[in-house]
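FORM 7B: Structural annotation worksheet

SECTION A. Query
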Amino acid sequence: MTYGLGVDLGTTWTAAAVRRGQAVEVLRLGGRRPEIPSVIFLPESGPVLVGEPAVRRGEAQPARLAREFKRRVGDPVPLLVGGSPYPAHALLARQLEHVLTVATAAEQGPPDSVVLTCPANWGPYKRDLLAQAARMADVPQVVLRSEPEAAAVSYAAGEHMADGDVVAVYDLGGGTFDAAVLRRTAGGFELLGTPEGIEQLGGADFDEAVFDHVTRVLPAERLAGDDPELVAALTRLRRDCVDAKEALSFDTEVMIPVALPGLHTRVRLTRREFETMIAPALDETTRALGRALRSAQVEPDGLRVVLLAGGSSRIPLIGALVGEAFGRPVVVDPNPEHSMALGAARLTGVIPAPAPARAPAPGPAPAPGPAPAPAPERVPAVAPAPRSPAAAAAPVTAPAPSPASRASPPQPVSSPQPVSSPQPGAPQPGAPQPGVPPTQPPGPNRPFAVGQASADEQTPVQLLPLGMIGPGGPPDIAPPPRASGRAAGRNRVRILIAVVAVLVIAVSVPLILWLLHHDNRQAAALQPSAAASAPACGFSDDFAGTTVDPAWQLSRPDLKLTVSGGAADLDAPNGTDIYRTNMTAPMLLRPVTGDFVLEATVEADPAVFYQGAGLLLWNGSDRYVRIERGFGGNGTVGFEYRDGGPHRWVHGPLPTQHPVRTEATRLVLRMTRSGDTVTGAWRPADKPDFAELATVTMTLPETVQVGVAALNRAQAGARPAPFHARFDQITVTC
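SECTION B. Predicted structure
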């Protein structure tokens, strides 16, 4: 049976997938896991070992073990393994040869086509070395694709994406980092701008940071020497450090066993310590993704999602940092170790045949002018299987270009020629004239210019310039000279078009004004309004009964608010937030004039990033203060605000935002206003003393709205989950 093979030769892990028809599945390369370590053991005699067997043999003879050689591709200095020099791409060839052997045995024959992935920022030299490695491994018909492109194809196979949707790929693997921006098209994906990357950054560096953390607390004399037993013990310790790093993606702390000659102990490592180690490097990755977006001329708001690919993207801090930096949904592939291989396998079904070379047609030399910009690199997408023979035979019509195409770099154009105002009854340039055959008839391969008649029109259409229509309506149009036959028909068409244009404008202008007025009324619903209710100077609400005081203003008509048992439960649907242009969080507000102290008892147990609930001072979408309990099981107390400028965290959930940690789920939050300063404080409900959070100075009017809010916007790969917060009592003291 014919099949295609997609291979991801990663720095630390190698994965593969096969495509049979439209079905794609991961190829099991190892015994314990589908993927295998990118490790090669070169013995003095006997066959070369790859993957798990190589790791086992390498513990006793580490000098004959080669790892992370993908990082050295392009380095003219060979690697010394077992006393012999090896170019890095020759070791890649051994790794690829092993994958091909496993695939041939599993599928009972060699693949018909192979797609290899490589970092997006690899240039022609390194790509040529990878192609050489494929030839050394005797791989038939190999095609190279970048890792972000393969990841986007894999994501699109499981998610509906419309033509024009733009995704950013954040690919952090074992040894390299790539950032790329791609747009969905009718034929697949096209790369926008220039990809960014960091070649010497990945999970292997994080492993080394954990190993360094462990060895720093051990006696130096226990780590020195070349005793074979010590070397084997240190190799095991490195492997345990890798396991500990991976465990911190799901746990908050780990104990790393140390078994050295004469020393047996354990070293504790917390997630917070690990995040502190790697935070500076991760900041560089978000900066690189920002550069990729600027190169593609795409604003973060224009992204559908940020796709996290590569095994190291499982680290929770990465999704949090990327979501905070760009304010867009972050999606983590459920199996990031395989996403590139699966995408590469899907691309084997659409490998284009080499285009035959064509001799240039003789003609005059072109005039000098600006060089055309290179066409964007296109990645064909795999079309789904046809639902029926009739559907398979139906022609596919390419959709019109999406508005998102404006994000791609502009192409150079020729200088425009001056255009004279059309005269009534005058022949139009390019239009067919009676008795004169057209010199360049329009057709499917020739774009139409403005004012040019299409192929199925019998007469040209004259467009009425917009500047001719004033406030009083269209100007008087002088009657055209008498004409007969075709000329008279053209005049009647012109008059008809002008009348239709006037009618369209007469209808559309009032409609647009009504829509603007309607949107302004909706936006004003969240703004402080003196007419909503008279400003109060102090109140206390313990939510007795089953309804809330009518003085409370609900920010959303669909807000689900349940009052019972002396508490108010606020439900937050997924996607609700108070961030940038996303002002959709459920809010319970009422106006207060002058200085005040606002307190509320909140019970909230957020389960995913990002959910939270707490106090709110609201003076509109660009001036507000929030104090909340948020951020999942490792809870934090947040203090954030906006004063007409950017959104700012004084205390946030991320390590770079000075987090205030707490495991308490029932808190008393306090917000104090004094003039233009706002101070926040908090305490666990079972503790008597408040701890101050911060004081900020803002521009505020005399009357503002205060109350509570709840947020629920799944990020960092978290699945949407229900969230509600309970408020027992809300008081304002003037």
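SECTION C. Observations
Residues 587 and 709 are 4 Å apart (CA to CA). The mean pLDDT is 77.

SECTION D. Sign-off
Analyst initials: ____
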